[in-house]
Amino acid sequence: MRQPSLISRRVAVAAVSLAVAAGAAACAGPQDSSKDGSAGQGKPQKGGTLSVLNTQALNDFDPARQYTSGGGNVPTLVFRTLTTRGPGSGAAGNKVVPDLATDTGRPNADATEWTYTLKEGLKFEDGSPITSADIKYGVERSFAAELSGGAPYLRDWLAGGAEYQGPYKDKKGLDSIVTPDARTIIFKLNKPEGDFPFLATQTQFAPVPKAKDTGAKYEEHPISSGPYKLVKNEGDGEHLVFERNTYWSESTDPRRKQYPDRIDVKSGLDSAVINQRLSTSSGADASAITTDTNLGPAELAQVGSDKSLSDRVGTGHFGYTNYLAFNTKVKPFDNPKVREAIAYAVNRTSVVNAAGGSALAESATTFLPNQPAFGYTPDDPFPAGRTGDPAKAKQLLKEAGYPNGLTITLMHSTIEDRETSPEIATAIQEALKKAGITVKLDGQENNAYKQKTRTIKTAPGVFLAHWGADWPGGGPFLAPIFDGRQIVKDGSNFNHAQLNDPAVNKEIDEINKLTDPDAAAKRWGALDQKIAGQALDVPLFHPVYKRLVGKNVKNVVISDWTGVLDISRIAVK
Predict the structure, then answer these.
(1) CATH number, residue 338
(2) What is the pTM of this model?
(3) Which of 80, 135, 361, 403 has minimal Cβ neighbours within 10 Å of its Cβ?
């Protein structure tokens, strides 16, 4: 099915980059869509300057190298795509809706071919028309080695994609992308892919006029198809300035708005400074947001005692799971009863507390995130309550041949990231001790930790791990971790258990044929339950993100797709 050397590595890079961008686990954002009168309410008006205060620079501002969900959705200001995320808050934003296209795509009978028709009247920032040839060229240039970094799926999914080197080396282009006229584009795939409309939200599907392509320098001035155009890019994304694109039309783009006159994004700031500036909200900071800085436990406690601040704090969710990973090729983790014993022994309450408390982490008993779009089905194959069941764990250890307990080593990172941190490792150590399991902690510098855990030859028997999806579906969540064909022996491997079950692989293929997201979600949920019974991992928690916005910020919308506020709908007046 998928080529693990391509998909597994790059999906993980996306998950990691999201984690870094959030300053904790993944993307986040203000606005709890379940609350009325929360952050950013009030009638939005046009005008003013929106300031964005970030820690991480938005490097490589090129549609070939971006993920639409990256950078707090900043790319959506400039890069429209064939499809996009729904405009609503919460679960409503998990729906795929048309963007440049008139619909979300028309598949053939077996979902190996997808056809799109562009809307009429689409224009670039210079007033020239957007055509299907521009979409085709935008996709093709994402294959160029010098523009790597974006979504990896196209190389695996498109017929001929595995060998294609991009338009700079291969002038002929991809035969699997056909443009019979200026408004029609057809994609021919290697295999059925019912999730193609989700993939078409990625910035690789943004139109790029061939005559304006400057290769690696295109990031300095990408040609906009969205409501704003980039007018300044300093320090490779350290300082970005956007102004209105006068040729953008809301009639062809009901999802986005064009409220501020100007959007100014500054990066390289300290997270504590960002939250302090948003809290004080003086001068320009009253019209400021952050797309990558969360509130921590101490800051939340301070904000909670001040209603004027708490009204400007919202909650973001993202499809993400933190878990305990087993390498079943390493003893004693080749014994299912040992793995089950550990699952029963884990105290999720103490783990959640180590991750910042219940305001920042939700206890997890399923690998799939707790959102319906992923196929989440409430389940707990090893029910031990929130604080664990040491007695049950001891019984299973005895059945496994360890009546006197055992000693194991848990690898974790030494960084304070509330994911793979020493605090979480210590919480697990203390819980397992009650079940007769002595846990030795092996703290590794972050780069060494990632290298060792992702390399089959050096992967430990048990370690702290995390995973985030590129879109709200079970496919990009379960396949990289449990599809046996994604095991990578000479590169970054994320099928940590090295599971290669023909039945699981076949079911993944069968679900990928489905073009109905709801039908696919049910199947993903059932597959999650089936895999969970093998205790190949221990789900620990799903992160929650808290964000503060300036006092003048209006129309804050956040969906469950990215967990990030939708910057294309923000107003500051």
Answers:
(1) 3.10.105.10
(2) 0.88
(3) 403
